Amino acid sequence: MSHKEKEKQKLVARVRRIRGQVDSIERSLQSEYNCADILMLLANVRGGINSLMGEVLEDHIRNHMMAPEGEPLPNLELAEDLIDLVRAYLK
Question: What start and end residues bound the annotated signal peptide (predicted)?
Fold first, then answer.
């Protein structure tokens, strides 16, 4: 299995976890629910989405915004700074 395929499977697994969390929110809203519990579930989903977005953005920066394979990486430091900025913003 290729490296990219493994990464894709990890991202899909994250989406499935988020889907499970959203389903939990729906079930909680349909039953007798505690607002504090719903807010915690919502915060968990938001964190999961932000984390997933960070991973996809990082992959995009590394795989599409830097020099193609085999070529020198003139903007490696700039790309790493951008990744750090994105991660900080999504926390």
Answer: none
